[in-house]
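To the wet lab folks,

You asked to see what we're planning to order before we commit. Fair enough. Below is the target structure as tokens, and below that is the sequence we designed to fit it. If anything looks off to you, flag it before the synthesis order goes out.
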């Protein structure tokens, strides 16, 4: 079965060639008919151009350069909309997520055992390398805050795959930056499988997270709780 992997990027010129190369190697080694869509928001470091230049080497690579929009969740949703495959997924560009886990994440969906799979830091054999304690604690607290919305152990994960038809006709808000959480809650998806991953902090480039991130997150989560209560 074909899959499309969306890579949202903003100033990831130093990471994108390495990640795209790794992903296509994994597709090849595992006989996966895979496509990659890089969705770049007109990065000042010209990530879109660096990605365009890889297209000769990787014919299944597409690049969407958005000049009119900005935002991680809307980039992911635009990538999914552009995909023509039944299974879609997303991975961060900064090599924080191990692409080697892609086959383990898509196999349960192909087998019909799951509709949604995610790379999980908070199950047995999952973990986080080189994060400062402060960041570990805030991630745990943010996860705890949504424990009333989902039983998933790592609902904040940005590395996930799904059957595209589960989001058909679902009104998804691209406002919050945790689009995986948004999908899990609004689709009421039950067939979810978590696959352990070890998350690595980025080596190249800078974080895109602004100081408003906590407030944005709390607004997003409040909306999801309201949705859960009133739907
Ligand atoms: N297209 C697009 N991609 C974005 C945007 N913001 C972040 N990204 C990408 O989304 C992914 C996750 O963003 P990160 O900055 O790594 O966020 P994080 O992992 O929480 O934080 P750090 O790793 O510490 O930087 C990366 O691939 C970013 O390049 C955006 O506004 N538009
Ligand atoms: Mg990151």
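Sequence we intend to order:
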């Amino acid at each position: 079965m074909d899959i499309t992997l969306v890579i949202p990027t903003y100033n990831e010129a130093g990471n994108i060639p390495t990640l795209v190369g790794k992903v296509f190697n994994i597709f090849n080694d595992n006989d996966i008919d895979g496509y990659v869509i890089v969705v770049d928001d007109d990065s000042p470091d010209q990530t879109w151009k660096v990605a365009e230049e890889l297209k000769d080497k990787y014919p299944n690579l597409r690049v969407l350069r958005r000049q009119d929009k900005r935002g991680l969740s809307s980039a992911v949703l635009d990538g999914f909309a552009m995909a023509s495959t039944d299974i879609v997924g997303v991975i961060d560009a900064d090599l924080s997520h191990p692409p080697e886990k892609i086959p383990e994440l898509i196999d349960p969906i192909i087998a019909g055992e799951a509709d949604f799979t995610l790379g999980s830091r908070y199950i047995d054999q999952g973990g986080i390398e080189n994060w400062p304690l402060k960041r570990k604690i805030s991630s745990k607290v943010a996860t705890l805050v949504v424990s009333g919305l989902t039983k998933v152990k790592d609902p904040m994960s940005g590395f996930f795959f799904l059957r595209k038809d589960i989001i058909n006709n679902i009104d998804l808000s691209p406002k919050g930056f945790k689009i995986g959480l948004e999908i899990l809650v609004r689709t009421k998806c039950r067939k979810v499988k978590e696959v352990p991953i070890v998350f690595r902090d980025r080596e190249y480039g800078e974080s895109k997270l602004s100081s408003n991130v906590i407030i944005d997150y709390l607004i997003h989560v409040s909306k999801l709780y309201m949705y859960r209560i009133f739907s």
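Structural context that might help your review: The chain has one domain: 2-230. The pocket of guanosine-5'-triphosphate (ligand 1) is lined by residues 8-10, 12, 39-41, 70-72, 75, 92-94, 96, 158, 202, 207-209 (CB under 6 Å).

Thanks,
Computational group
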